Structures are given as C-alpha cells and as structure tokens.
Input
Amino acid sequence: MTSTDRSDELAAAGLDGQNRTALGRLLGTGSIGHAEKGSDGIMRATVRIPEDELIWEPSILVFPEGGEVELTLINDDKNTHCAVLPHNGDPKIIWMVNHSKGTARLSLSGPGTYYYGSTTGNDEGRGLTGALVFGGEVPDSAKQDRPPQPRP
Amino acid sequence: MTDYVDAGEAVPHKTLSATKGSAPATGNVDFERIKAAKSEPQNWLTYYGSYDGQRHSPLDQINKETVKRLSPAWVFQAGMNGLHSGASTYSFEASPLVVEGVMYVSGPDGKVWAIDAATGEELWRYKWASPYDVSLCCGNVNRGVAVGHGKVYMYTLNAHLIALDAQTGDLVWDTVNGDVRAGESGSVAPLIVKDKVIVGSAGGEFGLRGHIDAFDAQTGERQWRCYTVPKPGEPGSETWGDENAEAWQRGGANCWVTPTYDPELELLYHGTGNPAPDFDGGVRPGDNLYTDSVVAVDVNTGTIQWHYQFTPHDLWDYDSTMENLLFDAPDGRKLLAHADKNGYFFVLDRTNGELVRVFPFVDRITWGEITPDGKVTPKVYPDEEGVPVHFWPGPAGGKEWTHMSYNPSTGLIYVPVQEVGATATRRRREFRESIPYWGAGVAVDLDDFYGYVAAIDPVTGEEKWRWNNEYPMCASTLTTAGGLVFQGTPTGEFVALDADTGEKLWSFQCGSGHHSSPSTFEVDGRQYIAVPSGWGGWVEGFLPGLLGAAAGDALFCFALPES
Output
C-alpha cells in the first residue's frame, strides 16, 4: 500500500477530518515529519495546528534517537489550545491562544514513543494528540551479553 | 496576517500546582544507618524496613487495644495525565519510605514524590517520561525507591536507574541498564548496600537473560553485573542442554523483587524468575539454572556463592523472585524463609543454602510434589501441543511477589496466600525479541478461588492460624510490636489482625484493591501506617475474577486521633 492509497482510504472512509464519519479526527492519521539534528546536538522540529482540523501537523514526529529536543509549536487555529508534552523530570505545558507560536525544550530517552496533547476540553480525543517517536538503540553497556537475537 | 502571538516557552507542569518544590534536609542515610534501621523505628529507611526483609516494626502506639480508633490522617492522590503506557494496568505497588518526617514514594508511570509524612503535603515531585510502547509483562508499576547518600533512587519502566536529589527532586544522574528493544523493563525498588545501589532486571516473559547489577551510589557507574543464566562454560551452563543449545540466551531468571541482605555474611539473597519460554520446557532441556532459585550473591564482587532451586525445569511460570526473609532459629542458626509460587514453604541455612525444612503452605497443589527432603516430582504440566492442562497453584502462585512478614514476639511469619488455579495449553512459537515468549495459551481460573493470611511457625512448619478471605490475598503483610498484622485485600479493605490469633480487629475501605506493601513510622510521637491503594498490575494472572474492579492510585495514611 502506498501513502496515497492510505490517504485515499482515510478520505473515502471519512476519517481524515473533523465531524465526518467520526466525531473527531482519528489519532495518528496526519502526516509524518522528521526532526533535524543541529550541530549543537539538539533535535528540532515544528508542529502546527491547522484551522478547524484539531490535529498536530505533522501528527507523528520521528527523531533519530533519544536526547534533547526543541519543538516549535504553532497554533493556526481560530480557537485556543495548549500542549502538555513529556519531559524527563516533569511534563511541560504551554498555553496557545489563537494564532500563537511558542517553543518547548524537552529531554527524552530513546528508543520509544511518547504522546502529547492539548489538555483542554477533549482536544485530545478530537485529534490533538501527537506522537514523538525516538529511534536508535540503548548503549552497548545496557545490552545483554548474548549473540544477536531475531526480531519481528 | 499579523505576527504570531508569542506563546513563550513550555514550563514544567508542576509549576502550576501547589507542590512546594523542596523537602527539608534530613540526616544522611548511609549504609551504617540502614544496617541499624531497627534502632530508629520512627523511620522506614529501606524497602522491607530492614535488610532482613522481616517487615516488622517495634512501634506499638497502634496496638490491639487502640487499633479500633485508627482513622485516616491524610490521603494522597497520584492522578494520571494524558496517554501513558499500560493505560489499563497501572497499579500503586510501592512501599513508602520515611526519613525524619519526609516520605519518599514512587507511583506508576515514572512518578516519585517527597511528601510531608505528617500532613500529606506534596513537597516535591519528579516524573520520568516513560515510553508509551515499552514492553511491560505485568503493568505500569513500580515497587518503590531507595533513599540514601542524599539521594532518592528509582528504576524506571524503561530500565534507567536514576538518582534524584533528596531535597529538591532534581536529577543527579541517569544510567541506562536495560535493553527495551529486547523487552527489558524495570519495576524493582533499588537497595542501597555500602556504596552501591543494587537493582535487578524485569521482562522474564520476553526471553531475556536475567541479571543483577550494582552501581556506584554517587556516580551511577556500574560496579558489577551478575547474570542469573550462565553462558556456555560457566557453572550451571550444563543445565541448558548441550553446548550447541541456544536456550540460555533467552533463559529468563529475571530479578524484579528487591533482595534481602546479611551484613555479616555480606550476601545478597536474590530470588530469580521463571525460565523462558514459561510453559514450553521442550526447548530448554535440563534444570535451567538459576531460574526459580535463590542466589546468594557476594555484594562486593557480584559472584554467586550458592544457590537453591525451588522448581527445577519450571513448566508453570513459578518465579521465585519473591523475598527471602532472614531470621535466626532459637539455637542461633542463621536461616532464610521463602514461600514460593509453587505452594511450598522453604527454610534454608542462609550460610550455605542447605535445606532445613520444606512443607506446603497452600491447600491445593497438583503440579507436582516436593518431599520433606526436597525431592521434586512434576506430575501435571503442559507437555503435549494443544492439550489443555489444569494445575494448582496457577502461574501467580500460592504467593506472588507481595511480601510476608515476621514478628519476633510471636515467632510467626504472616503469609498472604492466593488459592487460584489455571489452565495452560502448550503452543510452541519461535523466539522474537520484544514479543512475549510463553510457549502456551494460559487462562487463569475465574472461579473456585479464595485466599487467607497464614500464620506459620517457620521453626516447626505449623500453621498457627489463618484469616480467611473470599478473594486471594494479593498484597504484602506488615507486623508490629503492637501485636498486629496489617493486610490489604483485593476488594479495598485495609485490615488489622491480632498477630496471636488472627482475629480481625479493624478495617477501612480504601475504595480500590490493594497490591502494595504498607509501612509504618512515627512523627512527633504519633505512629502512622501508610498504604498505597490501587488495584492493577497483572490481575489477569493473580485474580482475573476481579479484572473489572475499580483501579485507583491513592496513598492512605492512618493514625490514632490526636485528642
């Protein structure tokens, strides 16, 4: 299946927008983005809330490994939202009125997936739940002393 | 379009709460102080209250006469936010520690708090971000922290050992100790011994090679690692098939419960988990050392000095990770008591692992038999592909990880007992990293179950009394010099029993089932009993008949009225 096939299927099923087949936007049906690692080692990316879509775009952000993250968050919607984001130490929150822009600096370990969302009303359920996906492997010092094993 | 409104920078969530942000300084908790923990009963300094794992307190303000007036002093609510791993399996399993009026306790999902132990006020909080997709065999749980050297230590769901500043909750160091891509995780409460912090691995249902690790408490640098499955050429490797066999590579024997420790012998007594695959022994011929064992580990070197295997070549998921309680016989012999999942109670000489006594402590044992001299004979097990086999105790055992306690005044050990059977049907499968590796389909009984607290004399093997309950007992007992035994039930009651007779003297309904380890302490002359309440974890394993019971994550603290 190509990505176009998938987009077409979501559209045909009415799952690619607000208040079509479902009440909200099915989680994880937005686009996929990739963070860029700067010369300072910080991984940077931008997410945006488009008007009346109640979705983070991209809704899935992929990072090459765990580490320091700097997200730029933009609210292009005509309503107020926020973001509560995972962070080692304590989640971080940013309040985002209509047409606003802010940043979040996060420290997260990898590999693994974290979700963040707009924790006002039921923004999270309507679609404003995004994924931060960290790839990579744990350090060799944390691995088991055994030959490489088969993976799924 | 106008410029964007500046939303600023995201701030820590806790800044929008009433948490104070710091805890009072306490006296330094070091090895000498933990070793002498029983001399300061106002505190609960380490996981079991003391290195011997007795879970006994000399405090007696709350006693047989006064306990009827016991009331909640305060309640602390953990709460959840957003999507988190094990969204339906979280449980509040910890044992709260207390140092000079400051409580340190961990909750589900990477949370640690410092709490005013007299008022319940939140002093500081720390939350480790746990990946949503981390492999968790048995829920989003953590059994507690260690406190010492000015720090609070926690082993995270994704197998990081972290050290926090005890006054501020700020991160001091973070060491990665497990491979989440292999299905490894962390749930154990660390143990401080000398200059070390000890932790064990979790993930036995994913075909790992179990290990115990010691880290420098100040820097987080690993001092030693002890694998609990030997590789070819090492002692015990002959129990994993011939030299070409690969079963050892994914053999299990994880160590997800805190060890006990004898400072004179300098030995850690660590229980080890089931072999993998749990129920398919055909792919791992032999006894499969050191699965389902107690290993006595030299704390200085990490080498195994002796072992005793409770269930050789396990085919029933009978982990032996639960505590090895240390006590001395009336003749002074240094002993160790262990109530195993397999339904038998073992007493060993803890200097050399010699069997002193073994006897059943549950009513129904069908998997096999262990004779008084320790000979093991399996009888019922899933050895034929696709054929269901029913056995007692089920895979959660006659007693799971939740702990028993020993009262030196009565000489009795109080054991939380689960009477639940199960059916396993062998279904062989290929091993794949991070995918559950059971080798069977398993369904634990939805009926014909019950539980009790058994008061057992470990010197004679006699059961002195039992307190019966409609449901199996899935929480740790605590016993005190007030002549009491405290026990939480799966239906939410927190119960005080007479340590001599088993008579129920008091109870309080906490609103969610108990699957934790209560502790007791004193502040300004007032004794408190603290118990986390929150049903969850591996309920499908130990009591699926209550899979629909309400979850929770509250910490109750009880005391006698001040007036």
User: Anything to note?
Assistant: Chain A touches chain B through 54 residues (CB under 8 Å). The beta strands of chain A are 32-34, 36-37, 43-49, 60-63, 67-75, 81-85, 92-96, 100-108, 112-117, 129-134. The radius of gyration of chain A is 17 Å.
